[in-house]
Design brief:
Number of helices: 18
Strand content: 25-35%
Largest sheet: 8 strands, mixed
Distance between the termini: 50 Å
Structural class: alpha/beta
Radius of gyration: 24 Å
Helix content: 25-40%
Number of strands: 29
Shape: elongated
């Protein structure tokens, strides 16, 4: 977002307009201003100069005037933790997709592209932040790679992060998911934490509690989006953490955590999506969906809207926004319906979020268009030799969560190899290293997809973003992986030698270069193709993408093989 200098001339004009001595740049007439301080409603005009609100509770004239028609006005929403890459579109398309849902500030961790391209990937996001209509803020990725048990495309040490620290879009250090490294006082981890002690450090501590949680928080980590139960969230709140309620395309924690949002806690609870794709945004919404669900579930509107705005601004040190009041940033959402959070119009940094604003942004050149380096894969590459008994460890997928189960299943053995058994809902899963760093292939079994035939593959594979493929037969798996290599990244559904549906993601193997409407249509075709193969998961592609994530209990798959997070060791 273009930043307006707040020099003496600006201040003089803002003061004069606030006093009504000169016209404001923009006036929202006849609004019903909903206060996230006390829930009161006042009928007023709202005067704006540049990117700043200069007057409320008065009548104003402006160079440009917008008739609110008695609609409610609330502060712009702040998504406190997300990965733009998981929207599958570029930051500028993400801006166009999400801003109409009222999200005027998005705090992103470009962790995904950083694991592929390193500092170049973060630099791409910092450049994009200078063009978006929304205010795209960046937390610098703290854990690249996320683990030593998988092969990433890059490595970032503190020396790589410090040159980007003073960029105006940067808030601090992104989710510190390597909590074992924090507790073990790993020197590289300590160096990163020490360098950001005077800034924000974002947390990521699933299921951490007791003395271990105390040790983690002693590093001055302040926020967490990984709580999945109310009890976990309450312990973290009691120990000073701000809880980010998450509702993404895979990780859906809102229902479990809704009860923690009360009048007493609302200033310490925020909202985030983490990972949400354009199809879910089109069907359900973004933070607006979370707000309406919270209110429908019994939350007071003042608590829901405060969590969506002021609380996030306060938690992340954005002291200029989160309220609709003189002197605060002009991020506003006009609502047709307060309880149902139906967005009518959005103003971001004093600009109407309309087609003209998006057209005036300029462009940012894509990066990482040749990041998939995989040899030709054959069915033989997915063969799993039999070793003694046919009892096998199996990843158990839990729909709606990225946490997995550690299962054991008796699987058929023939021809000297252990085979998938779709009748038991057990199919193969493999991770194919795609950064050109050795070509490892990790193999295992997974349950929960419901696949009867064919394969689903993705070059989005958190966090190292190798190619992850799930399949009922080896030939389909090879077809899917080879097609992803030809696309330079993407999602593929294959059956035998046939590709049933695909979406190209050539930007670092993570993002499309197409408009979000095109991506949405491709996702619909992919979902339909996956259902034809028997897949029962509502969001199979992000579920595949999270299978390699070896920092969430219990059993995961990496390019080096099955990984037991409880023991932090490879299986077999």
């Amino acid at each position: 977002m273009q930043r307006i200098p707040h020099d003496g001339a600006f201040l003089e004009r803002a003061i004069a307009a606030g006093r009504g001595e000169v016209p404001a740049d923009l006036v929202i007439r006849d609004a019903r201003l909903f206060s996230v301080i006390d829930g009161s409603v006042s009928e007023t005009d709202i005067a704006i100069v540049g990117d700043r609100i200069v007057g409320t509770q008065q009548r104003y004239s402006g160079t440009r005037e917008v008739d609110a028609g008695g609609r409610h006005v609330v502060p712009g929403f702040i998504d406190t933790h997300l990965h733009v890459e998981s929207s599958l579109v570029t930051p500028l398309e993400f801006d166009r997709c999400v801003l109409p849902h009222g999200v005027t500030t998005a705090i992103c961790d470009p962790h995904e592209i950083a694991n592929v391209l390193g500092a170049e990937g973060i630099g791409y996001f910092l450049q994009a932040s200078e063009h978006t209509v929304m205010d795209l803020r960046v937390n610098l990725s703290s854990c690249v790679p996320a683990t030593a048990f998988e092969t990433a495309g890059a490595r970032l040490e503190i020396e790589d992060l410090l040159p980007m620290r003073d960029h105006p879009a940067v808030i601090g250090l992104a989710e510190f998911m390597n909590f074992p490294g924090v507790l073990a006082r790993d020197p590289a981890v300590i160096a990163k934490l020490a360098a950001f002690q005077d800034g924000h450090i974002d947390g990521h501590a699933p299921m951490l509690s007791g003395a271990d949680l105390n040790g983690y928080l002693a590093a001055r980590i302040r926020t967490d989006h990984e709580a999945t139960t109310a009890a976990e969230a309450r312990e973290k709140l009691a120990k000073g953490m701000t809880i980010l309620i998450r509702e993404g395309s895979v990780s859906k924690d809102l229902d479990a955590l809704a009860e923690i949002l009360t009048a007493e806690t609302a200033s310490f609870v925020c909202l985030c999506t983490d990972d949400r794709n354009p199809l879910d945004i089109a069907e359900e919404g973004h933070l607006d969906s979370m707000i309406r669900r919270l209110i429908a579930g019994g939350a007071r509107p003042v608590d829901a809207y405060r969590a969506a705005s002021w609380s996030g601004a306060n938690a992340f040190g954005l002291r200029d926004r989160g309220l609709v009041a003189p002197g605060w940033r002009a991020d506003l959402v006009l609502l047709d319906d307060l309880a149902d959070c139906r967005v009518h119009q959005v103003i971001a940094g004093g600009r109407l979020a309309d087609a003209a604003a998006f057209a005036a942004r300029g462009d940012v050149a894509p990066v990482g268009l040749d990041s998939v380096h995989v040899r030709t894969i054959t069915a033989e590459d997915f063969r799993i030799p039999a070793k003694g008994a046919n009892e096998q460890p199996v990843i158990g997928v839990v729909p709606g969560r990225i946490i997995t189960e550690h299962l054991t299943r008796s699987l058929p053995v023939s021809g000297g190899e252990t085979r998938a058994d779709p009748a038991q809902d057990v199919v193969k899963v493999a991770v194919v290293e795609r950064h050109g760093r050795g070509g490892n292939i990790g193999r295992g079994f997974v349950s929960g997809f419901g696949l009867k035939s064919g394969a689903i593959a993705s070059s989005v594979g958190h966090d190292s973003h190798n190619i992850c493929v799930v399949g009922a037969d080896d030939r389909s798996m090879a077809t899917a992986v080879n097609r992803i290599a030809a696309l330079k990244g993407g999602f593929v559904v294959a059956d035998g030698d046939r590709v049933l549906a695909e979406l190209a993601l050539p930007l670092a193997g993570l993002m499309s270069l197409e408009p979000f409407e095109t991506v949405r249509g491709a996702l619909e075709a992919l979902r339909a193709a996956a259902r034809e193969l028997g897949c029962t998961l509502p969001e199979p592609f992000l579920q595949v993408a999270f299978l390699p994530l070896p920092v969430i209990p219990h059993l995961k798959i990496t390019d080096m093989g099955l990984f037991d997070v409880d023991r932090f060791a490879l299986v077999g």
